[in-house]
Structures are given as structure tokens and as C-alpha cells.
Amino acid sequence: MAEVKLFGRWNSPYSHRVEMALKLKGVEYEYIEEDLRNKSPLLLKYNPIHKKVPVLLHNSKPIAESSVIIEYIDETWEGPSILPQDPYERAMARFWVKFIDEKCTVAMWKACSSPGEEGEKAKEEAAQLLKFVEEEIKGKKFFGGDNIGLVDFAANFIGYWFGILQEIEGLELLTKEKYPNLCEWIDGYINDSFIKDNLPDKDKMTQVFKAYAQAGYKPKI
Ligand SMILES: N[C@@H](CCC(=O)N[C@@H](CS)C(=O)NCC(=O)O)C(=O)O
């Protein structure tokens, strides 16, 4: 039988994306929990460039970077498609993942974790960037159409993690009044039976992220 191992972290949105993709395809895998403040020699060996989770090991071959891993999973295993079939739609899905990763998540994370002027600027930037996402999801159940797909997985930080962080920080950045379509997607995404059963526990996440903030620890995302 093929060997599939996932090096991850329970509260990492990136690890979570990959876990969802493996579960959607029904792939059996061994999960290895990493301590990101004391990374294992194997994680450093398999992801020497970024030194981050997730890393997927398939028959001893490592793959890093969550969206690259998800595309690999989609191409390797049968089951529901994660990327669209149409080349233009595939390109658009990749565009949105890049936008979410490189722009939205960065600004949203800074908005919650950076003090002073940097934090204030990030809040304004995140608010502007989210307007594009709000427009993109308008009239759709999921970013992938009727079914959950690559962009939905990639937007999990917006869908779940950010709500917890903004509650901790007392922010009102992403609200139903400001982003009704996006909040409708969030509701549908986190309450989808497949997703819901696999989300990390909210209370545990709240405790851990509060403890990080108190200790001045800023996880690198
Ligand atoms: N671009 C990467 C981001 C992965 C990432 O940021 N992982 C974080 C956990 S959420 C990590 O491993 N950080 C390492 C550290 O904190 O040193 C991906 O999509 O896989």
C-alpha cells in the first residue's frame, strides 16, 4: 500500500487545507503533529527551504506548500475533483488562491497581530482586499460553485481562523453588515457536514491563540 504521511500542526489553516483534501479523496494517511517551536529533524529534512508545515510524504517523496500539495492530491487520487476541469476556471481558482495567500491572509493576520500603526494600516488594507472576495463569492454557494473546491479550502483562514482571532482582539473587521455574501459563504462552509466535523475546536484555538499573544509569540504564517 502507498505510504502517505502528513506533517502538520492541528491549529494551522495550511495543514487543515491538506487534511481536508486528503479526506475528501478518501486517502488514508498517517498524521504527524509538529511542534513549530521545536521542529523535528524530519520536517527540516523534507522542507529545508521554508521549514513549515504542511509537508506531504508520498512513497518517501516530500511535497511542500499547501496549494501545491492539494493540486498533487487532486491529480494523484480519484474521487471528487478539487480543481475545476475547465482550464480557464482552473487558472481562476489558482489566481484566487494566490490572492488569498499573498494579500488577504497576510493583511488579516497583521491586522490581528501587529500593534500600532502597522496594525491599523493592515486593518484598512484587509478591509479593502476583502471587498474583492465579497464580490467574487456573490451569488455562489462555494467558490468552487455547488461543491467545495480548492479556493474554499484556501479561504479557510477567512472562514474560520479569522473569526476566532478577531473575537480575541475585539475587532469588527469581517461582519455580516460589511460583507454579507462572504459571511453567508462562511456560514455555509463551516456548517457543511464534511467541514464541520473536521474543524479544530474553537475553545482550544481561542485559548492557544490568547496564550501566544500573552507570551509575545507570533507564529509565522
Ligand atoms: N505557504 C505555506 C504556508 C505554511 C505556513 O505558514 N505554515 C506555518 C504554520 S500555519 C508554519 O509552519 N510556520 C512555521 C513557523 O512558525 O516557524 C503553505 O501554503 O503551505
TrEMBL record:
Residues 2-81 form the GST N-terminal domain. This is Probable glutathione S-transferase. Keywords: Transferase. Belongs to the GST superfamily. HSP26 family. One of its GO terms (molecular function) is glutathione transferase activity. Signal peptide: none annotated. PANTHER family: GLUTATHIONE S-TRANSFERASE U8, GLUTATHIONE S-TRANSFERASE, GST, SUPERFAMILY, GST DOMAIN CONTAINING. Residues 86-208 form the GST C-terminal domain. It catalyses: RX + glutathione = an S-substituted glutathione + a halide anion + H(+). Transmembrane segments: none annotated. It comes from Penstemon smallii. Its EC number is 2.5.1.18. The keyword Repressor does not apply. SUPFAM superfamilies: GST C-terminal domain-like, Thioredoxin-like.
